[in-house]
Amino acid sequence: MLKLTNLSRHYLSDDVETLALNKVNIEIAVGEFVAIMGPSGCGKSTLLNIIGMLDNPSSGEYWFNGENVAGYKEAQLAAIRKHHIGFIFQNFNLIDELSVRDNIELALLYHDVPASERRRRVAEVMDKVGIAHRANHLPSQLSGGQQQRVAVARAVVGGQSMILADEPTGNLDSAHGQEVMAMLQGLNEEGTTIVMVTHSPAHADYARRTINLFDGHVVTEDVKAA
Amino acid sequence: MFANYFLTAWRNLLKNRAFSAINIIGLAVGLASCILIMLYVKSESGYDQWIPDNERIVRLHTAYESPGRAPFLTVRSAGRMMPAVRDYLSAEIEDGMRLVVWDTTVQQNGEAFSEQVAFADSSFFNVLNLPFANGSAQSSFNKPNDLLISREMAQKYFGSTDAIGKTLTVCCLRGQTVELTVSGVLEDLPDNTHLALDMLVYMDTEVFGQFPGVLDTWTSVNVYTYFKLRPGVSLEQAQLRLTWWVDNESPFLEFAKQNSGMLPDGTKISDTMKHKLMRLPDLHLDAHNDAGNMGDLTPMGNRKLVATFSLVAVLILVIACINFMNLATARAGQRAKEVAMRKVLGASRAQVAVQFLLEAIGLVMISLLFALVAVELVLPWYNQLLGKVFEFRLFSEPSLLFTLLGLGLLVGLIAGSYPALVLSGYLPGQILKASKSNESSASVKLRHVLVVFQFAVSVTLLVCTAVVYLQTQHANNLDLGYSTERKLVVGIRAARDNLDSLKQQWQAIPGVQSVVYSSEAPTQDNENNNFVTLLGSNQGDKPVEELLNYHNMDYGFFQAYQVQPLAGRLFDKAYGSDTLTPAEQNQISQAAAILNEGAVRRLGFNSPQEAIGRTLQISASGDGLNHLTVVGVIPDIYFRSVKFAIRPSLYMLNPQRFNVATITYNQGQASQVTAEIERVWKQAVPMQPIDMQYLSDMLAAQYQSENVQMQLFSVFSLLAVLVACLGLYGLAAFTAERKTREIGIRKVMGASVKQIMLLLIWQFSRPIMLANLVAWPLSIWLMLNWLQVFVNRIDTWWLLPICLMATLVSVCIAWLTVGGNAAKVAKANPIKALRHE
Ligand SMILES: Nc1ncnc2c1ncn2[C@@H]1O[C@H](COP(=O)(O)OP(=O)(O)OP(=O)(O)O)[C@@H](O)[C@H]1O
Ligand SMILES: [Mg+2]
Fold first, then answer.
1. Taking every annotated instance into account, which residue ranges of this chain make up the domain ABC3 transporter permease C-terminal (chain B) (predicted)?
2. Is residue A20 in contact with ligand 1, taking CB distance under 6 Å?
């Protein structure tokens, strides 16, 4: 599905150059469930952002479905992104002013989906993540676990084939964390590719493969026996 | 503690430079506008209140309101009213006096100056107790022809106020030159009075009683009549008694009964002729309601205009205050932690509120400083525009200083109260725990309501400005019905004796096309109205009798003004029978008359043609009659201001009534011609300065005050719009900032930069659209009312495109204001926005 070769990303701020990613080589196949681990500041989020096409690499290649998207303009990236990639964040990133239903619908709003179709698909996915009874609530009226379920629903409602999750359980207690992990696993079993950053070895265990980053390098890759 | 407040406030001011600038600029513009308008309002109000006993001094106004006719309103009254009223209402009235004001020429050391002389009854100072610079009412104003002059006049003619005993030669009081001896010097009148009295003469009532239509008349209104009421008598009481007396017991009633047509059976005098008293302090602002077109000696004010400008001043300030409130509450999140910490450390809600109030007041005071500088800078321009001399001496006038400080304090309290209330109400627990925006949706809604209000006001002002502008243009460009090009108007009263030779000499000047005389030139109004009997007609058992306004025109007058007859002919020397000659007692003299269409209709003719050849009878001066044969009919022309409807008019040719000459000159020869005209005049009338004006200037002067109002109104409404936009800009910048996370999320979901921008712009357009919805009906209603007073008004359908334009303008302004911020935020990389804090 995607392949990174010699991919680097450095930041320049206040005349200090930070090498967040240093010649990373990673390949992820369709249907995989990959966990990315490593100490704080090692470049996990940076890597995920680049994979999610929210950010551009400084050098190296990024092959996505056979296209090298490394030098693409923002608009080109956005066009690929919106059809293929869904995001889940540690802090949920729901829009406070919108109801659960509207937050999920947002992911379809920019996809030229007719209103009736949107409504149908939102209802379907709300059922799937078990949040249908809260459809008209505002995010502030939900627990953290429920909010993250809304975020998951939003990430998949557009039929995205890959979900990128940056510490999706970081703000949740263990019970709610388990719930979200089970949901991701379910999605993976249905064929969705999942790349997840986590600090929790227990949650990394849900993945088939774990990539360990340290200081911008891939240190090890553990593949779980089937 | 205050040092700490001050430090926090100062740091906040610096930290949020853009917001501070928006607030300070907005408030400064608002305060400066307010101060400027206050100067105007202050100068317009408080007129005549320095005159002793002003609250019980009244003036008698007269109005003729015949059914079916445009009312004839004047602030003057008939000469016989004052003594009769004073006698009869002695229980209510302490004293009364009349003023007769004439234009004269004062000759001094071989030079001639035009001056206005007021002749007053001996009781003048019993009513208007004006201060003397030299002399007193008892010693200086006690016999006929005693002359009082103002300090300024004394300086002008004698070089000192020590002028008592000196003489002035005053020319042409009813044809006579008289020597008047100065018997006293009056203090110069201040600016805030409706009076204009540079020369005041003790009126010889014997002599003036003999002049027709001045003192000895019940119907001609040529004097200003003032009364002083007895203490404790209300205006209403006096008014009631006066009206009752006129209708029931006055000698005027006897007079009216004897005059056919004046008092039809079953009517009262007050049905058609109203005598109205108005308080002295109200004269400047309200007399214009009673004035019609015979106004005061000084420019009259207008209470509605003063109120309108006051309202605009308040609105601009309110808009600036709203900016402050909106920005302060929008930014409240930033200050929330500070509030929470202060409260955790023991501050009470009141203490926090006071802190924010003080901050607001401080900011307003800084703005006030800028406003004062701005006022100083624009004052010369403002003075020139308004033709006033506003002084702005802050430090020598402590009352002004305190007023301004009070204003600043008030504005600070208003602007600061809401933010203080909101911010001080934060609960520290919630704030320190929550990381997201903790603003209640109520305060967001209120902010929207306030923005809607600001823009509703702005759009309304825009619409009003546009309508006022169009109406002014409309009046300026109205087809008057005659040619106004290349014309000079010269007053010729002083040359009555040699009009013919003057005309010949002027006509001989190269470049002069024509010289024609008339009783009035366009824009010069008269109230010469006469009852005209249409001979050979029947209306019941009497012939048709109608009141017509009349003018006297020379041969060639209508030709010079390029007015074509609709029927018949214009005055023509060739017929030899057009000129009106005074009729002897019991004699009838024949002459020609021209009517306008209105008069043709008023007399009941169905077409101009029908009127030709008919005879009109009018009473001539002396006791004779004139029989006027209608020889021509001309279209209705705007002889007087387009502010008034065209009256049914009768044009005659009585050379004795000629007052002005209209000189038409050839293109491009204005300067040589004017010089020659003046030279000829100086030879013919050496002791009288020439009174010459371009007709175009006279026409323009009619709209002078409207044009000034228009300019002021536009400037202040544009300022209001500007201040509102400043606020919107600040709000947009802030909201965009606050929305970065939402925008980031939307972008991750696939929204394009364009979509995000549209979203933001739409969010800001919504309140503007709403504001337009409010502004449309409001401004249409206001303007329909305003237009009502104009006889010649723009088509009211104009309101619709104007409203649409105003909407477009306001939306465009909003887009421009918001667009920059929106673009910046929409383009930002979403990663930053989404990183967890
Ligand atoms: N916008 C930026 N500008 C400059 N440096 C940045 C920027 N974003 C990240 N960095 C730096 O790049 C490095 C990698 O950051 P990144 O956010 O990817 O770490 P992370 O592994 O996700 O850490 P955490 O576990 O704390 O989320 C860090 O040293 C960080 O300080
Ligand atoms: Mg991270």
1. 311-424, 715-817
2. yes
H-type alpha helices, B685-752: 695-702, 704-738, 740-748
pLDDT tens readout for residues B772-807: 999 999 999 999 988 887 878 888 888 889 999 988
* Residue B348 at interface with chain A, using a CB cutoff of 8 Å: no
Q: Report the alpha-carbon distance of residue B177 to residue B80 in Å, rounded.
A: 26
- Tens digit of each residue's pLDDT (9 = 90 or more) over B125-134: 999 999 999 9
- Ligand 1 mean position, distance from CA B684 (Å): 101
Residue in A54, A90, A154 nearest the CB of B830: A54
| Separation of alpha carbons A51 and A166, rounded Å | 12
Mean confidence (pLDDT) of chain B: 86
By the 8 A CB rule, do A21 and A218 touch?
A: no
Q: How far is the centre of ligand 2, averaged over its atoms, from the C-alpha of A40 (Å)?
A: 7
CATH entry, A33-44+74-223, from 3.40.50.300, 3.20.170.30, 3.40.605.10, 3.40.50.720 = 3.40.50.300
On whether ipTM exceeds 0.95, the answer is no
End-to-end CA distance of chain B: 33
How is residue B113 written in tokens?
């100056």
B745/A106 Cβ within 8 A: yes
Within an 8 Å CB–CB cutoff, is residue B744 touching chain A?
yes
Which of A91, A43, A89 minimizes the C-alpha distance to A219? Answer: A43
Residue B792: predicted pLDDT: 80
**pLDDT tens-digit readout, B677-691:** 999 998 888 878 888
Cβ–ligand 1 contact at A42 (below 6 Å): yes
Q: Are B633 and B611 in contact (CB under 8 A)?
A: yes
Quick check: A89 and B834 CB within 8 A? yes
CA distance A69 to A51: 10
Helix, strand, or coil here: B807?
helix
